[in-house]
Batch of 2 targets.
Target 1
Amino acid sequence: MNIKPLADRVIVAPAAAEEKTKSGIIIPDTAKEKPQRGEIVAVGEGKVSEQGVLVKPQLQVGDQVLYGKYAGTEITVDGQDYLIMRESDIFAVV
Amino acid sequence: MNIKPLADRVIVAPAAAEEKTKSGIIIPDTAKEKPQRGEIVAVGEGKVSEQGVLVKPQLQVGDQVLYGKYAGTEITVDGQDYLIMRESDIFAVV
Amino acid sequence: MNIKPLADRVIVAPAAAEEKTKSGIIIPDTAKEKPQRGEIVAVGEGKVSEQGVLVKPQLQVGDQVLYGKYAGTEITVDGQDYLIMRESDIFAVV
Amino acid sequence: MNIKPLADRVIVAPAAAEEKTKSGIIIPDTAKEKPQRGEIVAVGEGKVSEQGVLVKPQLQVGDQVLYGKYAGTEITVDGQDYLIMRESDIFAVV
Amino acid sequence: MNIKPLADRVIVAPAAAEEKTKSGIIIPDTAKEKPQRGEIVAVGEGKVSEQGVLVKPQLQVGDQVLYGKYAGTEITVDGQDYLIMRESDIFAVV
Amino acid sequence: MNIKPLADRVIVAPAAAEEKTKSGIIIPDTAKEKPQRGEIVAVGEGKVSEQGVLVKPQLQVGDQVLYGKYAGTEITVDGQDYLIMRESDIFAVV
Amino acid sequence: MNIKPLADRVIVAPAAAEEKTKSGIIIPDTAKEKPQRGEIVAVGEGKVSEQGVLVKPQLQVGDQVLYGKYAGTEITVDGQDYLIMRESDIFAVV
């Protein structure tokens, strides 16, 4: 990916929402829960703090992550939807 | 558990709410008070402060903890419900 | 007490509200003013500041303290009610 | 006084509101303006800052001070009413 | 003046509002705009910052200053009205 | 100008709003857009930070600047209207 | 461009919104989505932090950037519309 997030931001490719419920019923698009799981596809260089210290990101490209339901801003690159958010919006690496 | 919380976050397995009152009456599901007690199942590496200092967590996996009623975000891993929250949301180790 | 508060938190055993008014009249339960006085029964190890400095608590177990009417969170241990709050919620040592 | 305020708090004994107007008319209790002047009767040891620096109080017991109308919390000690507030709530020494 | 403001506070004697308009018409009391100009009559010793640094005031007694319409708290000393405010509420020295 | 702004404040002389539209029609006073461009006529000595560091202003008297529509406080000096604002309210030097 | 943004601000020339939909239909002006992509045309010298440290900008003139829909303030220079915003409003370099 040729997009470089600034500072402490990362770009996440959300995992596709499962289109079947456990009982195997196909659910229509509007009923699908927005995914909270995704893959890191780009990482910023880190945030320069008030002290002039560069705080490096802990995440790496390829990490599978969990994030909040309403985290980030949607961007579209080459017809693909991504989320750009701050590293602090990421809860955990799976 | 193969989930690694980021920064100063921890993952808590909430204790099962007791299904009997003291007098031995079984209470229906909706009347059960949401548990505020649980076990730490994963701990982040700590938060890098503005000064570039890594502030290590005080909690360890296995700690029995008390936390606020509305603390954390629910996540589901292998069909099991957990709460992911910041260490500062934990009140005490029991 | 085998509960260890985290960081800059303390556990307070609220003093029993006096059940008699000065003139000796016994007042019913709902009219009793919620106590603002109590005894420290557990103290955390202190808060690690942004600079990585451990700021130790000034309070000790056994201190009789005054605190705000709405301070803290109620917890129940062995059938006994306590309040867990931050040291900064404590006004004074009596 | 055997009460020790914590951190940057002070205890103030409010000055009695004057019960006569300038023209000598005695005013009933509800019309008296709440006093904004008082005497410092106890001073905390100071606040430990984020840097671990103890910032000592500038006020001393016996100082006559001016403070905001709604500053502090009322406490009663031996039947006497006092106000407990942060030093920053004190405007000036008279 | 024998009042000493605390920390970064100053006491201002507001300039008397001009009682005549430019065209020489005397305006009644309620129409007079509250003055935003005054003279510094007392200055605190400065604010001790989180780092334990004493930040000295830039203002001196006698400075003619401009300040915001709603800045400060009114105090009355010997029948005279003053405003007590933080130095940061002062816009400029005239 | 004999007004000295305090700390990180500057005084701006707003540029006169153009009284003609491009097509040459004279517009009445109420329709004129409030100017967002002006000239710096006075600069403070800078702000003393929490660390006791004097952060000097980047602007100089004579700079033509752009600022937000609602920035600053209006002051009148010798019948002339000025705006006094913080340097951080200035967007750019033209 | 002869405009110099102050501190940590940048000036962005928004990319022209595409006037055709994918199917080739020309859409009227009001239906065009406000662009979130643009080119950096001017960069400030950086922000002086509380510690007196100059935090230099990471962006350069010519960078193609993504920014939030409601970021920045519109300014008009020589009949051309630009956005002036803080560097922290920029999400990523494309």
Note: The mean pLDDT of chain D is 83.
Target 2
Amino acid sequence: MKKDILEALKQNKGKFISGEELSIKIGVTRTAIWKHIKQLKEDGYEIDAVSRRGYRLIQEPDTLELNELEIDIQTRLIGRNLIYYPSIDSTNNEAKKEAALGAPEGTVIIADEQTGGRGRLGRHWVSPRGTGIWMSIILKPQLEPAEAAKITQLTAAAVTTALRNVTGCEAGIKWPNDIIINKKKVCGILTEMSAELNTVNHIIVGIGINVNVDPKEFPDEVRAIATSIKESVGHEIYRKEIVLEILQIFEELYLDFLRTRSMAKSVEICKKYSVTLGNAVRIISKDKIIFGEALDLTEDGELVIRNEAGAVEKIISGEVSVRGISDYI
Amino acid sequence: MKKDILEALKQNKGKFISGEELSIKIGVTRTAIWKHIKQLKEDGYEIDAVSRRGYRLIQEPDTLELNELEIDIQTRLIGRNLIYYPSIDSTNNEAKKEAALGAPEGTVIIADEQTGGRGRLGRHWVSPRGTGIWMSIILKPQLEPAEAAKITQLTAAAVTTALRNVTGCEAGIKWPNDIIINKKKVCGILTEMSAELNTVNHIIVGIGINVNVDPKEFPDEVRAIATSIKESVGHEIYRKEIVLEILQIFEELYLDFLRTRSMAKSVEICKKYSVTLGNAVRIISKDKIIFGEALDLTEDGELVIRNEAGAVEKIISGEVSVRGISDYI
């Protein structure tokens, strides 16, 4: 019912709607309406209440709770099933559990805080409460395990486009799974999968974005290599707007990929916003280190480099550093 | 304490051990000893109890309960952590949960019955109570996802060798994951993994063996293509002996693989007992069907065939049928 009232207020944002009208529309007493309005104010909603005129929504809080997301989401697959936690160990871990229990494709787990956020290879990922976007998407595409890397590229394309659209920041992609602003990391993507030998059961795409984090909150060793949207654009951004835009663009790219089996659209975006191509790179792959120049992405999103010996080779995975970015000077 | 008594009886199998001796050895009253002996008899242990002489173990039941396995296991990694269920939906599913909770490498889940046993691609697998071996091994090797197929070959080598050693049956390997006797399937292997793009988190090896199943118990459509050890050798076999032999040989092959990073030992066994090599094969891979002749296995255990056009190609995965076996006539 709180959701219904909120939805009515949002439809009339900035305009008054009378208690009586709300009462009739939603089918509860005016006292019940009043109680829910009080709760919404406690949740951080700025609402005018003027006698004889009614209620007027001035401003929503920066919240990712379900009411906000569910009312405004426009997708038809990605995020239609949303699960929200104020705090959780890791949205990827939770998504794995949900997937094992049969959660449908497109299910999104989102949290206001991660107490055990992980980056690649189990590395710790700082995920403070209320200032970032920590979410995971469950996918069940018909793919071979070796193709899962495509989903990382698709996600990088979606997140970068969404960040640029909503915030105007100059986000770029450090192949394969980091989003960069001003040479510092603002977002990491962690793709995990459950698979049989030749068939993916499900893929979990974890997305962690530093949105309104104050750089002073980062630990010292992180501050040198990480940034936030707030630091880049100079003010706070509503996380909800970014989430909805990511889900929307992700859905477009993902449905296009399923339909065409081509990564063309995502790879075009990845090339356009790449901070890797044209630069010197250092790649740690298994037990060797490769130095070279990043030349291009293949149609599947793999990195093509010219190595020190002058030979052109294709890199499918590995730890990639780009000269001048983060810790590779 | 029941385990201690059983262990003492087993050490003296066929010989009498007095209640007093047991009482002193284990540190409980003779009445307690008597009660546990009574329970062991109810569990199916055949035990003589003769006044003034004591207790004598004649015969163990065909059980996979922990006491039996834990007392006799000789491995140091595979199966050192054993988890037994009288009945469970699927040992692979349970192994996935245990792995997610941090179960150590080598953990084995074993059940007397599966109510939702699965073969590849989610196919149903008949797993009746008390007549088969349904178990899963949790592994955490440093592997790329594409290498997981090696573990299937290693498992096929271990199971085939163990079945031959213990039962004298003429088990053969239908590449990549079926064990065959008399052209019918006696065992299936289901390898699943959790992985990041370039690193395996863990691998679950599911092994399902029809041991003492009476072929009459198979559904009609299964009877034509499935067999059991009992049908092959003409009598029942203690499942425990097979389990212990599998774990032992699996451990030898696995530790050798980790040490040498070479599949030589497993592939040698896979070639020796192959029912695929030298025969006409039909391979369903993605959306195409390949006909050809199976020529060889590579050093990594992949199948080499000569296709209808006369070209030699390497098959990494797919649904393989061998002319003359099961449903490919």
Note: The mean pLDDT of chain A is 91.
